[in-house]
Design goal:
Elements (H helix, E strand, L loop, with lengths): L1 E6 L2 H17 L3 E5 L3 E7 L8 E7 L6 E5 L8 E5 L1 H9 L6 E8 L3 E9 L7 E8 L1 E2 L18 E4 L3 H11 L5 E6 L5 E6 L4 E6 L15 H4 L7 E6 H9 L7 E7 L3 E7 L3 E8 L4
Antiparallel strand pairs: 1-5, 1-7, 2-3, 2-6, 3-4, 4-18, 6-10, 7-8, 8-9, 11-16, 12-13, 12-15, 13-14, 16-17, 17-18
Helix pairs in contact: 1-2, 3-5
């Protein structure tokens, strides 16, 4: 297995760093899947334990000036690595004014992702900072555990209100309860509610847009058959939601919220060269 990539454009270096910061805010450990065309950051916690799932895709051609990889074999031309994303962030934070960043899969005392950060210098000699990040190579027999999550057959799909406004609302609510209920309907209304022993606090948003989905006929079928005024609701961990909203560094053009009634909330962040899906299972009363 081999992997080598090089980032030169300072805008791409900074954007790549922002993506890593977003992932690190959401997961202590994740799986990095490397393919010829894309990089994926994946987290799949046990839903039975209230775990969340993350699926983040990056088009390598939008970030890397050079990119070469060889997987296990021709039929399985991919590489799966387990690592703490925070370690990647630390390496990239030293590169915010770098001339280039090389990322290689190397074998030191153990498998590593080696970051070679070429810093600008006043002399004719370049100055390079090297970070060796230990990784665990995931064997081929386990790859099926990291398949892309299926798009839920949601009951409602709606564009989120301004993320900064929603984050401020959720930050205030999280001092009142460990859980928050999110509900929405097809008339463009969304409600965010917390309930405590002494108080119930509810914030309303209106005139929100909703996406038009194309694809398999069953996607969003329940959404299309529902009374537009009827609210669909799911109760989730408010601290996880606050973490998700505060961790966004990629400045997505849109955030879609899909709700399966009483079962799951699915957030879908859209950007020109990055997409991120975040699944939060509902919590029963």
């Amino acid at each position: 297995m081999r992997f080598r990539g090089k980032l030169i454009d300072i805008g791409c270096i900074q954007h790549f760093t922002r993506v890593l910061i977003t992932i690190a805010k959401l997961a202590k450990m994740c799986t990095l899947r490397i393919t010829p065309n894309k990089l994926y950051f994946i987290l799949s916690e046990r839903v039975a334990n209230g775990g969340v799932s993350i699926w983040c895709e990056l088009m390598q051609g939008h970030f890397f000036n050079e990119y070469n990889m060889e997987g296990v074999n021709e039929e399985a031309n991919e590489i799966f690595l387990e690592l703490p994303p925070e370690n990647l962030v630390r390496a990239m934070k030293t590169a915010q004014s770098a001339k280039s960043v090389k990322i290689k899969l190397t074998k030191k005392h153990s498998p590593c992702l080696t970051f070679e950060v070429e810093q600008p210098s006043l002399s004719s000699h370049s100055r390079t900072v090297v970070h060796d990040i230990p990784v665990h190579i995931i064997p081929r027999r386990l790859w099926d555990e990291f398949d892309e999550p299926e798009m839920p057959d949601f009951d409602i799909s709606i564009y989120m209100p301004n993320a900064r406004v929603l984050r401020n609302v959720v930050d205030r609510m999280k001092n009142l309860s460990n859980f928050v209920s999110i509900s929405a309907n097809q008339n463009g209304a969304m409600r965010v509610k917390v309930e405590a022993d002494q108080v119930t606090v509810e914030t309303h948003f209106k005139d929100l847009e909703y996406p038009t989905w194309s694809g398999p006929s069953d996607i969003g079928q329940r959404s299309r058959n529902r009374d537009p005024a009827e609210f669909v609701e799911a109760r989730i961990d408010i601290r996880r939601l606050a973490q998700f909203l505060s961790g966004q560094q990629v400045n997505p053009s849109k955030i879609i919220c899909n709700i399966v009634d009483t079962r799951v909330v699915h957030f879908f962040l859209l950007h020109d060269d990055v997409s991120l899906q975040y699944f939060m299972p509902a919590i029963s009363l």
